[in-house]
Amino acid sequence: MDTKTTASYFSLCITGQIVSATFPLGPDKEYVFCRYELLAGPDWQLASGPQHGLTQLATNKQRHFNDPIVFNMPIEVTYKSTSPFGWPQILVSVFGRSGLGRETLLGYAHIHLPVFGSHRPAEVPPTQIAPILMPKLPSMLADLTSWILRREPELKDPKVLLDNLKCKGLSMESYGSLEFQMHTVMRGARKLGYHWHV
Amino acid sequence: MAEVHIIGQILKAVDFAEPHLYCKWSVQSGNAWRLVQGEVQGQTHVSSHRLENSSDFAQPLDIHLSTAAVQGWPRLLVEVFAVNILQQSWPVGYGFAHIPASPGGHRLEINTWKVAPCGWWESVRERFGGGGAALSKTDLLYSGVERYKLQTRSSGKIIVDLNLIFRKFEDYGVEFK
Hints:
Chain B: InterPro entries: C2_B9-type_dom. By secondary structure, chain A is mainly beta.
């Protein structure tokens, strides 16, 4: 009986950035910033890198309203895990700030961190585009109140969007999209018997 | 026991006639498959788009199945419901697709169908009265046995993005082309 020590976990290194946010008819507020959070299942452990982040206040005021609002926010994390279940996701809350300094929510976007490297030619960068979802109010009176007070609704716990059953009954409107560019480097998965590619 | 991981998102619904939609999905598989971790069914939030005629769900899927046989390969079933201003909901699309049988990233487009209205009164009711007809037995979705005599119309498409990771299938001699 040979006693070969095998790795019992694999590690996943993600390098990339939140590139930009694009709103087809312009953002609702002048300045836009994002807060991102990385969430993963119980088997996953964050080995290095920040779990939360806050971007700068960006705008496309001087240019065409259709242009992407560039953040260029780096995301560099390394996770260790024993199983692909609970693959990490990035949940971004997009906020807007008007010129007077009032900050309101513009929406939420979330994607899974990329599972595979992409089979695409080298000139095309790997981009993932996530729609920005904005919670809608349940009644017309609430709409009127929010318009008068100039305060948009926020979800108390945006992780509800990542759950399969808890977002039943929630009403959202999508406007705008967030672009990510992320690359994956994995180590140790093949030894555990995982078939990552054909 | 070989294992399959399904990691992905139900992205959006396109080409439906109604703007406010939600989707009930489930992953079903044969007797030899067991669920290890994850949830095999769910319901998305109601979604609409400000400018286009599509609905973004972005519902994450993370399912870990283990199997002893290749029969009963899992399927993803979707039922799309529309909601009107009076908070009534009715089904506007039924569809299913098999989970692809090769590891890697896949983008599935599930074409859906809905039950056609039978006469003039039914089509008026579908437009104004809060909904058309629904299937009483939803196992018609994936079985072809009793579909004869059912009249259906084509409905929109659901776009799903899946990443599949397989494990230990080679130990049992299974090859993927």
